[in-house]
Amino acid sequence: MSEQPLPRQRAVPADSSSRLAHLARGCAGIVESRWFDLTIVLVIGFNALLLGVETYPHPGSLGTLLRALEWFFRAVFVVEIAIRVLAHGRRPQDFFRHGWNVFDFAVIAAAFIPGLHGESAALRVIRIARVLRLVRFSPGLRTIVVALLRSLPGVGGFLALALVSLYVYGMAGWLIFKDTYPEQYGTIGQAVLTLFVLLSLENLPDLIEQGVALSPWTLVYYVSFVILTVNLLLNILIAVIVNSMEEARRLEMTERMAVDEDRDGVPDHLDRIMISQRLDDLRALVAALERELQIDRKDGQPRSSPRDRRPPPG
Q: Does domain 152-257 have CATH number 1.10.287.70?
């Protein structure tokens, strides 16, 4: 039996989706690495120091160096955003589903708005806003920010109650002290402003001394204001914020548990990216095999089996 030549191994053509999958896998690995976050934190810190150095008088040569460093920081931040976007593979829009990502993109992209130059106040504000990006890299700071945002409804109710209390005590103070102390209680606006400053208890002894000189009963006015408004309202505000902190901590723990439900040490979104990339690789391989089989059918030569490839016995 004549020995048929082995078919040539056709190279599997590189598929664009496969290359994108490998690129996304590499970018996702970079984003998930600890040194990446540490590098960005250091760059943000140096950028903050640069903003402080610019407030001091400096020679022209140093100004040129500072401008060069500013462009360097911009380039680093642009590369960071590009890596984060590419880590999402064929779904770059998923990058904007996270609020911190939107904030980072807005702060970095705003520096390239046409018309902004190095001395403009708007550009300086944008550069200062970069320092706020440190919040996303610190779980503790992130929890505090989330707690403050979640406490806004409760704080709104607290402010309404505080305004009502100040207005009621302001009207009472206007009726009692308007003729004796017109500079402090001459109008309802002045009375509310005086009581608002009194919330810090800074000038309480002076006001009590003035009131007692007018009538000993004014002591009831100030003592009740301190107990009901200063102590009670501030304790309510503290309770609202503490409750929001607990909710923010529970939310943070829930998100951390949801990030890695299979507990394999790899975040679930990275698992999804890797699975999608593997599926893309398999699709590319299947497509290449189908093309190879079609070429074989056109040649009219069946592929030799492994048994046919064995050399004849001697």
A: yes
